[in-house]
Specification:
Elements lengths: L1 E5 L2 E5 L1 H12 L3 H24 L4 E7 L2 E6 L7 H27 L5 H18 L7 H14 L1 H28 L5 H39 L3 E8 L4 H5 L6 E8 L5 E6 H11 L10
Helix pairs in contact: 1-2, 2-3, 2-4, 3-4, 3-5, 5-6, 6-7
Family: Belongs to the peptidase M50B family.
Keywords: Hydrolase, Membrane, Metal-binding, Metalloprotease, Protease, Transmembrane, Transmembrane helix, Zinc
Cofactor: Zn(2+)
Length: about 290
C-alpha cells in the first residue's frame, strides 16, 4: 500500500507493518506504533538521502517494522564504497536518534516511558539491520567488502549462504525458546523473512551482474581510464566461472592457457560479455578462440 511520495520516491507499507500497527492499536498502544513507524521511516529516508547524494536513483521504499527495502533504479552494487555508505546510513540514523533521546531523558526533556521505548526501538532497528544477511544493511555492507576481493557474483553467493545460515540459526533459537516456554513470534518472522529473501537475491544476482558489466563499458568511455586486472584461465573453463571473478572498477584481460600452461590466446572482458550474451553462460573459453 503506497502512502506518500518524498523526493520522487514512493513510500510503501509492507503488509507485515500493517499487522504490527493493528496489533499495537488493538492493545491501545498507538503512541508506540507511531514511534515504531517514525523510526523505520527515518531509517529509510536516510538511505534515500545518502543514495541520492551519491547520484543513485530510487524508485520505491517498502517499510517493514524493522526497517525497509529500497528499490534502486541505478546499480548501487556497481560501487562498493557507495553501497557501504548508503547501507550504513540507516542504522547510524537510528543510533543517532537513540543517543539524542538518552540526552533528552538525562535532562528530563521527554516523557520517560516514550523515551525509553524510542531508545529500545531504534537500537533494535539499528542492530537488526546490521546483521550480515541480505537484504539487510549489514548484508549489503558485507557483500560490498567481499566484492572488492571476490567479484560481485561470488560475493553475493557467499553472503546468501551466510544469510541462510543466520536465518536457520534464528529460527532454531525461536523453537528452542518455545521448548522452554518462551515464544517470540518476531524471531520466526525474521527468520522466515531473511531466508525467503535470499531466493530473490539469488534470482537477481545474474541480472544485476549483467547490468553492471554492460555499464562498465559506458563507464570506461566516460572516464577514459579504468584499472586493469589480468586473469589466467585454462581453456576448458566455463564463461560463468570467469565472470564470477570480475570486479567493479576494473577492466579485465583474460590470458587463456592449455593444460600444459602454454599461452594460446588473450581475450578482453568485452569479448567475454559478448559471448555470454550470444552463447550463454555454460560455454567454455576455448569456444571463443
Amino acid at each position: 500500500m503506497y502512502i506518500i511520495k518524498i523526493l520522487g520516491v514512493k513510500i510503501k507499507l509492507n503488509l507485515l507493518f500493517l499487522v504490527v500497527i493493528l496489533i499495537f492499536g488493538y492493545f491501545r498502544l498507538l503512541d508506540k506504533a507511531v514511534i515504531t513507524f517514525g523510526s523505520a521511516f527515518l531509517h529509510e529516508l536516510t538511505h534515500v538521502a545518502v543514495a541520492k547524494g551519491n547520484g543513485i536513483g530510487i524508485d520505491e521504499v517498502e517499510l517493514l517494522p524493522f526497517g525497509g527495502v529500497a528499490k534502486y533504479n541505478d546499480l548501487l552494487e556497481l560501487d562498493p564504497k557507495v553501497e557501504i555508505k548508503t547501507a550504513m546510513a540507516g542504522p547510524l540514523c537510528n543510533l543517532f536518534l537513540a543517543a539524542v533521546m538518552v540526552i533528552c531523558l538525562r535532562y528530563s526533556f521527554f516523557n520517560a516511558g516514550w523515551g525509553l521505548f524510542l531508545i529500545r526501538t531504534n537500537l533494535v532497528i539499528a542492530f537488526f539491520n546490521l546483521l550480515p544477511a541480505l537484504p539487510l544493511d549489514g548484508g549489503r555492507v558485507f557483500r560490498a567488502f567481499k566484492t572488492r576481493q571476490l567479484g560481485f557474483r561470488q560475493a553475493t553467493k557467499l553472503t546468501i549462504c551466510l544469510s541462510r545460515y543466520l536465518a536457520v540459526t534464528v529460527g532454531v533459537l525461536a523453537l528452542i525458546g518455545l521448548w522452554f516456554g518462551y515464544f517470540n513470534i518476531m524471531l520466526l518472522i525474521i527468520a522466515f523473512f531473511i531466508y525467503t529473501s535470499t531466493f530473490k537475491e539469488n534470482r537477481n544476482n545474474i541480472y544485476i551482474l549483467m547490468r553492471y558489466l554492460n555499464q562498465k563499458k559506458q563507464r570506461l568511455k566516460e572516464r577514459k581510464i579504468l584499472r586493469n586486472e589480468e586473469l589466467v584461465v585454462i581453456e576448458t573453463t566455463k564463461i560463468k566461472k570467469v565472470i564470477e571473478k570480475f570486479k567493479p572498477k576494473s577492466f579485465h584481460t583474460i590470458m587463456v592457457v592449455d593444460n600444459d600452461l602454454n599461452i594460446i590466446a588473450t581475450l578482453t572482458e568485452e569479448e567475454i560479455i559478448t559471448a555470454l550474451l550470444e552463447l550463454g553462460i555454460n560455454i567454455q573459453i576455448k569456444d571463443l578462440i
